[in-house]
Amino acid sequence: KLRLGILASGRGSNLQAIMDACQNGFIPGEVIIVISDKPGAFALERAKQAGIPVHCLEPKSFDSKELYEGAIADLLAGSEVELVCLAGYMRLVGSTLLEAFQGRIMNIHPALLPSFPGLHGQRDALEYGVKLSGCTVHFVDEGIDTGPIILQAAVPVLDDDTEETLASRILEQEHLLYPQAIKLFAQGRIKVQGRRVKVKAQE
Ligand code: GAR
């Protein structure tokens, strides 16, 4: 079983979808540890509810980003985590964490990358006026939402959408897409060639 470590800053609905998919056998994996940068994150409650060890590390209690991420990397490595999943983790991952888990950090973003990276994917898509948006699961690199794309799902943008209605239509797809991408990784079916991620057929 693939050992998963999840980083989350907020509500944790993607964390929930991942925990559920592990629980029901869709993902041949197990959430080993959940780490948040926000003490009040509901994600922490969800993990506790599921009996999963949680940690909260606040960047402000460290002297540098290197030390903060070093502490996270130590926790993840100490739990022998094999894949790190960012699930609403609202920070830029730095070189310390990237180097510790090279090619083994995934993120989900609420837009069709490379459009609308950053903190407000849904709002930016709505303001731009695109008619399709969606979500993207990608590997994390040093840029802002720039790493190799693993899977994407599209949803329509409707004339009467607000940021909230669009976000919830996208979120529904996130909850399907993220477990799917993790499952492929767990099955060893993801191959990265430069920017392109290819999915091997099932044996
Ligand atoms: C999700 O929509 C996720 O795609 C987005 O935050 C939300 C977290 O929801 N992530 C980003 O915008 C990353 N820049 P959740 O806490 O309920 O999973």
From TrEMBL:
It comes from Desulforamulus aquiferis. This is Phosphoribosylglycinamide formyltransferase. (6R)-10-formyltetrahydrofolate binds at K65, M90, R91, L92, V93, N107. It catalyses: N(1)-(5-phospho-beta-D-ribosyl)glycinamide + (6R)-10-formyltetrahydrofolate = N(2)-formyl-N(1)-(5-phospho-beta-D-ribosyl)glycinamide + (6S)-5,6,7,8-tetrahydrofolate + H(+). Catalyzes the transfer of a formyl group from 10-formyltetrahydrofolate to 5-phospho-ribosyl-glycinamide (GAR), producing 5-phospho-ribosyl-N-formylglycinamide (FGAR) and tetrahydrofolate. Pfam families: Formyl_trans_N (PF00551). The active site is at H109 (proton donor). It comes from the Bacteria. NCBIfam families: PurN. The keyword Ion transport does not apply. InterPro entries: Formyl_transf_N, Formyl_transf_N_sf, GART, GART_AS. The lineage of its organism: Bacteria, Bacillati, Bacillota, Clostridia, Eubacteriales. Residues 4-182 form the Formyl transferase N-terminal domain. Keywords: Purine biosynthesis, Transferase. GO terms for biological process: 'de novo' IMP biosynthetic process. It is an enzyme of class 2 (transferase). GO terms for molecular function: phosphoribosylglycinamide formyltransferase activity.
